[in-house]
Amino acid sequence: MIKTLIVDDEILARDLLKLLISKNNMPLEVVGEAENGREAIELIFDLKPEVVFLDIEMPGSDGIDVMDYIKNHYIEPITFIVITAFSYFEYAQSSLRLGAKDILLKPIEANSLKESIARVIGYKFTDNPLLNDILQYININYRNDIQLNQCAKDFHISVNQINRLFNKYFHMTFIKYLNKFRIDKAIELMYNEELPIKEIATQVGFNNLNYFYKTFKIITGNTPKNYRQ
């Protein structure tokens, strides 16, 4: 689960966000709430959340003030999702320059929230908490050697059960999902023309270059070189 902080001066807005997170089995653990910028900064240093839903318009220190302070004084990785009313949208856009990953308009709807979370965490989550934990594990560790048997042991589940979950939600096995995830990351790295293909393969978890080429072509229909061109 991803440690999450909610910052909004309206208690009803905070309650709605918590309800949507819980009702839709989103992979977020709400570890704290703040109703103003000063509280938000204190809780960020105290709780070290990974994701912060941040209202842009609050009395006293607003969302922009919070992001500006955190950018200059906080070293831990953190993701801001800015929340704003439509009337403050242009003002909220300045938060992107301070590192916000997404903007949500009030009133927040479930689908918009799901899409936003999927964008910022880098993978699509499901309504199955166990599967979400496995997806998060892949997202964090895809650069390393991931073995299906070890994953099954770590999550106290059989190999067959893992594959049934992936087939049910993604219509593919665990290994095929892992390979596709890695290839998608490789494609992102290909925008950096200076990185050689071999280094890209290593960075996304492929220790065998031939296997990387074979997997890349199966998934994209092209060789890495042709795809980059």
Q: What is the level-2 CATH architecture name of the largest domain?
A: 3-Layer(aba) Sandwich
Beta-strand percent range: 5-15%
What is the CATH homology-level superfamily of the largest domain? Answer: Response regulator
Number of helices: 12
Give the overall pLDDT as a whole number. Answer: 89
Helicity, as a percent range: 55-70%
Give the SSE order as H and E letters: EHEHEHEHEHHHHHHHH
Pfam family, one: HTH_18
Organism: Tissierella carlieri
Domain HTH araC/xylS-type: 132-229
Modified residues (4-aspartylphosphate): 55
Describe the structure.
This protein starts with a strand and ends with a helix. The chain has 2 domains: 2-121, Response regulator (Rossmann fold, 3-Layer(aba) Sandwich); 129-228, Arc Repressor Mutant, subunit A (Orthogonal Bundle). Strands 2-1-3-4-5 form a 5-stranded parallel beta sheet, sandwiched between helices. The chain is built from 12 helices and 5 strands. The mean pLDDT is 89. The protein is globular, with a radius of gyration of 20 Å. With 229 residues, the protein is α/β, with parallel strands linked by helices. The protein has helices spanning 11-23, 37-47, 63-73, 89-97, 110-121, 129-141, 148-154, 159-170, 174-189, 197-203, 209-220, 224-228; strands at residues 2-7, 28-34, 51-55, 79-84, 102-105. Helix 3 (63-73) links the parallel strand 3 and strand 4 (79-84). The modification 4-aspartylphosphate is found at residue 55. Residues 132-229 form the HTH araC/xylS-type domain.
